[in-house]
Amino acid sequence: MEKLINQFEFGLFFWQVLIFVGLILLLKKFAWKPILDAVNEREEGIKNALESAENARKEMQNLQADNQRILNEARAERDAMLKEAREMKEKLVADAKSEAQAQGLKMIEQAKAAIESEKNAAMAELKLQVSTLSLSIAEKLLKDELSNTEAQTKLVEKMLGDVKLN
Amino acid sequence: MVILKRPLRLIIATFLACLPLMSFANQEVDTAKVKVEATHEVVAEGHQEGAHAEPTDLKSKIKAFIGHHVLDSHDFSLTQDNETGESWGFPLPVILWDNELHVFSSAAFHHGKETAESNGKYYAINHHDGKIYRTDASGTITENEETGFPSNVRPIDFSITKTVVSIFAAAILMFLIFSNLAKSYAKNGGIASGVGRIFEPLVVYIRDEIAIPNIGEKKYKNYMSYLLTIFFFVLFLNIFGLTPLGINATGNLTITFSLAFLTFLITNLTANKNYWGHIFWMPGVPKPMRIILAPIELLGVFIKPFSLMIRLYANIFAGHIVLMSIIGLMFIFKSWIGSSLSFGLSFLLSILEILVAFLQAYIFTMLSALYFGSAVEEHHHEEGHH
Fold first, then answer.
1. E strand or H helix at A37
2. Is the complex ipTM more than 0.95?
3. B306 at A interface, C-beta within 8 A
4. Which of A166, B45, B68, B302 is least enclosed, having the fewest CB within 10 Å?
5. Is B200 on the interface with A (CB under 8 A)?
6. Terminal Cα distance for chain A, rounded
């Protein structure tokens, strides 16, 4: 122990502390601070780069998901549109059909009515003519055969009856 | 990371490839030095009047050399030639405070062989502890009979010793490397470039594995500068110690003491109420126990940094001694089998020492962070505080 204590040299201790403390202060200013700052900065940079890469990846995934969703929506919309169009077509056809039917029926009705009125008109005209004719026949009969009135009347009636049956 | 991998591997490979060269270099330096020690001792004998057994055989010479290597030194000698007594290296300034300031070059000591005169006072390096004592003109160092330590007056030694030079070199190297690393971020768009980027993973490791788990997300930033500096400082000096330059800074008790002292200061100066509460009035235990626990806990406050100091010192000190002893074995065996075996062993140990260099730097930083964490801890004792 004494030998160890004897080895202690105050002058050397003085120089060592002086040099060492000076070295710490100098290195702190000129080396350790800039080195540690640079290393920290670089590490931060790497961390940030990794983070942003991860974010980009997530964003990409989101975008892809979005794209898929939009695509699906578009597909669904297309399908819906197609369906709607088909339905509309069917409806149109059905409408057209029913309208055509109704129109046809209406036309038939109209035709029927026209025929009926034509027939009535024809009948009326016929009646008028028959009456005129019968009047003229009667006239002629009156003129020609005043003697045989009875027979003549019977004949007229008979003729009229025939006409009516027509 | 891929860009970083290759240079790192290359550097590691080159480093490993160079390891044997380092051992070779050590070996050569050591031979020269060991021989010098012999002459040195002979010269020293005159001064010390044969007070200590002078190493004569190779074993004691190696032992003496190792003993000197692990101590601090007043000159930076790389290698010496015992034949001519020439030394390759450079002297360092000696600064002494002995009632007045004495400044002179360590060359005046002639590697401890002579006394140096400054302002009318004489100083000599004691051969045993490598410290400077005030002596008379002939350089007599008298020793206390009981303790065996010199009884001469010791001036306060502010010399720029080898250890001061090496910590200063480590500090400059660290400053250059890390300020360049810091600048490269701005230049290179937030990515490190240059030599410093080898250390960037270590910086991040200290933040993520040492500071944040031990101190907590909220407060770790206050301690980052200290933890980073202490980790790289200890690591650099440990690695310096493995080079053939013969530096042993982290194996020096004063250095580890000052590092542990700073950890101690920071821990206790930044400590919150919770920390002191746990020391003096431990919550959650019966009152008599609290009285018993308080001194134990208080002792723990000092033991923690003390263990930090001893752990680093002992590991590096022991590593140097073992490695140098095994290198020394090469010269004792002097046979192709024994010497090459101890060469192989020293090679393996060098690799182990590199591991220890990293490990001890890590442990020192880790435990400092742990102590800081306990000082700023906010949670209650229910969560398992001790």
1. helix A33-144
2. no
3. no
4. A166
5. yes
6. 167
- The minimal CB distance from B182 to the residues A19, A22, A30 is found for A30
pLDDT score of B194: 82
* CA closest to B225 among chain A residues: A28
Are B254 and A13 inside 8 Å of each other by CB? yes
Q: Which of B108, B129, B159, B100 is nearest to A10 (CA)?
A: B159
- The sheet carrying B116-118 orders its strands as B116-118, B121-125, B132-135
Q: What are the chain B neighbours of A49 within 8 Å (beta carbons)?
A: none
* Nearest-5° Cα angle at B379, B373 to B382: 120
- Give pTM, 2 decimals: 0.71
Tell me how far apart the alpha carbons of residues B11 and A24 are, in angstroms, rounded to a whole number. Answer: 27
Please list the alpha-helical segments (H only) found in B49-108.
58-69
Mean pLDDT of A66-78: 95
CB contact under 8 Å between B225 and A15, yes or no, is no
Query: In the predicted model, is pLDDT for residue B1 greater than 60?
Result: no
What are A86-100's pLDDT values in tens digits?
A: 999 999 999 999 999
Q: Does B309 touch chain A (CB under 8 A)?
A: no
Which residue out of A8, A17, A27, A39 would a mutagenesis test of the B interface target, given it has the greatest number of B Cβ atoms within 10 Å?
Answer: A27
- pLDDT tens string A16-66: 999 999 999 999 999 999 999 988 988 999 999 999 999 999 999 999 999
Q: d(Cα B129, Cα A62) in Å, to the nearest integer? A: 79
| Interchain contact A70–B (C-beta under 8 A) | no
